[in-house]
């Protein structure tokens, strides 16, 4: 398959759809917010006279409908905005741009129509969670920072990576099996402060969509999920300033129009100031310590013409840790995206993107001639070209190409003259990951809709570089060197995708999903949570791409005139070529690391339940997941299946918000889950007077069960057209549960011949206060 053949098929499809439509016309346009001019993605446009006929806006608010000649009532709807009706006499092609008004919240009114009431039932998007940043402002926070990833962790099928962590597992997959995108740019480490905050500043984020299954063919490269996060475009109506001052960090966002009705910008910054308080300490070692992180989000867009629009966005973030002159850790992300939207016609929309991503870390000890430091870097340059073809009222075709050039510096050692070691650089790795895809969103009738597509991905490892050979026991056999630009290894495969919805009645539907994914980039970690020093590697002659096949089936049902949404969804995921370490593997600065890896199979299955209340003073949701995640390696546990680290049988999340009055909102969330699967020593023996632990089966023990209650109160002190302010009071871990962050084993002080388990708990209570403002 090549690009010419692919485009030919797409053009032929377009021509077949166009034939016989001489008596039909097209209505198209853009949907925006009247408040700030932001595009409204995934809004619905329906036709009152033709049930089941409609369109959904793309990521940039563009829609297109093909209808027979006649008079129609078009209904425009989006979450959190008033419904807008437009009478249309369709005798020719029309361009209709619409601005929707935000809903004015009123406590006295029980029902507020914020969207198509049964949208969760009718839309063909099972296994997808959507979060609007504006809807989570009143939730309890950790350290006063609203975190969109922590909200996603409360969704069924999504599990936190640990106490306070921003890493997450989706349907039994690993941390590295989630593709995290910020304005189309991959983010390899989405965490600050060792995982306790995410890099996504809530003030700069428009919203997020998490694809747990039924993934669209435009996404690929990870076997578990895709988290697509979009930054705000900037207020195109007025200059505005917003921000917050909290106990840990402060934020400031400035946005406004560059040229009225043509372009806008957004600049958002955040920084912690724990290091400023360290300077006040009488302890000299703390005076010299460093502890902070910062974020900077930038975005601008400009409408060149009615058919052309460009976007430029970037993110820069860094963490700095240092204790006296003893040790230091710094890591950070830098990303950039340049996009060009072009409307070829009222049916064909395109988006071309050039994307850059850079993640690096350095971990060091000592200073000057005594300094020893380990560095690693991963860089991506990515080109994407996507098309949306609104072929007819029943068919929307999407197709495109994508190519990413990866560069990895797996580990460089910088050594001072007094360390007794020599500085060394690991060999850089180069790879080209490409894909081509096509998808058709097909509405057969008012009850049945189908989204089906095919993605073909392929990966090429490129020289210069060294290829290593090992036997089945991981012993080194030899190596072969490839010159610059030489093809070292290539892989590829077809990835079919399917999502289907059958509407049983106005309030219920069945949804089916299937997807296959290839993963060519892999993260190696031996810690229980995501760490800045985790190592990323690419597929080689020894490391084949991971493959995952997932099927899901769900029943969606609404009650009380759509006041309550409920769903139950079952899934099964089969994983091939899962990666793990051999026992006793050498992780750091090891050119022969591939010999210390083993490859096996994985499986994950479960059932997800959700009950959600959308209307009234009390809103929120209850999610429960019953699941298992297991692995099998010939070299581990005698080839028997064992629980994966992220295997949690029970996972419960309860989120509630209550509007006490027009100024005060109370909120709470409760979390419970089964303890992680871990490997503890089963015994001990003494060698030369030293106690050596004895380990048996991998992950055969469990950490204690985890549970926690967070409470929050938001007080809206002032709200006018020109200025608004609020205070947020939060208490993390309200009843002081000492959850286990880690468990270690040490000799007892009174009897060194006995061993005791020692639990480390991080947070008993964490109160926070944040003042937020906007003008």
Automatic annotation (TrEMBL):
* Domain TonB-dependent receptor-like beta-barrel, first and last residues per copy: 311-733
Keyword Iron applies: no
Where does it reside?
Answer: Cell outer membrane
Q: Which keywords does UniProt give here?
A: Cell outer membrane, Membrane, Receptor, Signal, TonB box, Transmembrane, Transmembrane beta strand, Transport
- Top-level taxonomic group: Bacteria
Q: Name one GO biological process term.
A: siderophore transmembrane transport
Cite a GO CC annotation.
Answer: cell outer membrane
According to Swiss-Prot or TrEMBL, what is its membrane topology? Multi-pass membrane protein
Name recorded for this polypeptide? Outer membrane protein
Q: Which organism is it from?
A: Salinivirga cyanobacteriivorans
């Amino acid at each position: 398959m090549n690009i010419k053949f692919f485009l030919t098929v797409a053009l032929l499809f377009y021509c077949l759809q166009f034939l016989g439509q001489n008596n039909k016309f097209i209505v198209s346009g853009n949907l925006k917010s009247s408040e700030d001019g932001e595009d409204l993605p995934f809004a619905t446009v329906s036709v009152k006279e033709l049930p089941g006929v409609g369109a959904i806006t793309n990521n940039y608010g563009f829609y297109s409908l093909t209808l027979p000649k006649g008079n129609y009532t078009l209904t425009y709807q989006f979450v959190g905005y008033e419904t807008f009706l437009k009478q249309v006499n369709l005798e020719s092609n029309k361009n209709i741009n619409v601005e929707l008004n935000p809903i004015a919240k009123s406590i006295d009114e029980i029902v507020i129509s914020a969207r198509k009431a049964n949208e969760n039932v009718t839309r063909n998007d099972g296994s997808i969670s959507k979060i609007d940043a504006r809807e989570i402002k009143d939730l309890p926070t950790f350290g006063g920072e609203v975190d969109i990833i922590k909200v996603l962790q409360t969704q069924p099928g999504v599990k936190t990576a640990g106490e306070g962590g921003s890493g997450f597992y989706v349907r039994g997959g690993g941390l590295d099996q989630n593709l995290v995108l910020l304005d189309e740019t991959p983010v390899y480490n989405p965490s600050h402060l060792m995982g306790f905050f995410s890099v996504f500043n809530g003030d700069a984020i428009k919203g997020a969509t998490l694809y747990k299954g039924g993934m669209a063919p435009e996404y690929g490269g990870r076997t578990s999920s895709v988290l697509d996060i979009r930054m705000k475009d900037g207020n195109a109506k007025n200059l505005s300033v917003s921000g917050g001052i909290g106990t840990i960090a402060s934020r400031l966002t400035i946005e406004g129009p560059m040229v009225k009705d043509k372009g806008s910008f957004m600049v958002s910054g955040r920084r912690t100031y724990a290091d400023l308080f360290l300077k006040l300490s009488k302890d000299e070692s703390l005076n010299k310590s460093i502890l902070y992180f910062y974020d900077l989000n930038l975005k601008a867009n400009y409408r060149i013409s009615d058919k052309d629009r460009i976007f430029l966005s970037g993110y820069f973030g860094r963490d700095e840790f240092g204790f006296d002159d003893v040790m230091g850790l710094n890591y950070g992300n830098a990303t950039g995206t340049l996009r060009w939207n072009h409307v070829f016609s009222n049916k064909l929309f395109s988006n071309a993107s050039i994307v850059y991503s850079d993640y690096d870390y350095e971990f060091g000890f000592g200073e000057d001639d005594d300094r020893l430091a380990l560095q690693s870097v991963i860089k991506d340059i990515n080109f994407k070209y996507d098309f949306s073809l609104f072929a007819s009222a029943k068919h929307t075709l999407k197709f495109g190409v994508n190519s990413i050039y990866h560069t990895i510096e797996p580990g460089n050692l910088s050594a001072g003259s007094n360390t007794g070691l020599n500085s060394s650089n690991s060999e850089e790795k180069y790879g080209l990951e490409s894909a081509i895809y096509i998808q058709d969103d097909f509405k057969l009738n008012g009850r049945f809709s189908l989204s089906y597509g095919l993605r073909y991905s392929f990966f090429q490892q490129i020289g210069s570089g060294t290829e290593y050979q090992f036997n089945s026991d991981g012993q080194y056999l030899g190596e072969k060197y490839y010159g610059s630009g030489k093809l070292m290894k290539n892989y590829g495969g077809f990835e079919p995708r399917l999502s289907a919805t059958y509407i049983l009645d106005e309030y219920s539907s069945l949804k089916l999903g299937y997807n296959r994914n290839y993963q060519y980039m892999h993260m190696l970690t031996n810690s229980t949570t995501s760490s800045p020093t985790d190592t990323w590697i690419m597929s080689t002659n020894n490391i084949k791409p991971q493959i995952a096949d997932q099927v899901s089936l769900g029943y969606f049902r609404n009650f009380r005139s759509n006041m309550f949404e409920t769903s139950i969804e079952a899934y099964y995921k089969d994983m091939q070529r899962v990666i793990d370490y051999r026992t006793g593997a050498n992780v750091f600065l090891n050119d022969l690391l591939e010999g210390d890896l083993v490859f096996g199979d994985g499986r994950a299955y479960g059932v997800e339940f959700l009950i959600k209340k959308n209307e009234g003073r009390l809103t929120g949701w209850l999610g429960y997941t019953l699941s298992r995640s297991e692995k099998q390696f010939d070299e581990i546990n005698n080839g028997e299946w064992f629980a994966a680290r992220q295997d949690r049988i029970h996972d419960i999340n309860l989120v509630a918000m209550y509007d006490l009055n027009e100024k005060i909102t109370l909120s709470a969330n409760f979390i419970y889950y089964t303890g992680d699967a871990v490997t503890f020593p089963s015994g001990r023996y003494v060698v030369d007077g030293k106690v050596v632990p004895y380990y048996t089966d991998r992950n055969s023990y469990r950490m204690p069960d985890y549970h926690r209650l967070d409470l929050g109160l938001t007080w809206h002190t002032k709200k006018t057209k020109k200025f608004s302010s609020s205070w947020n009071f939060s208490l993390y871990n309200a009843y002081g549960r000492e959850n286990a962050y880690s468990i270690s084993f040490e000799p007892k002080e009174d009897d060194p011949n006995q061993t005791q388990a020692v639990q480390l708990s991080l947070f008993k209570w964490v109160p926070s206060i944040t003042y937020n403002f906007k003008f």
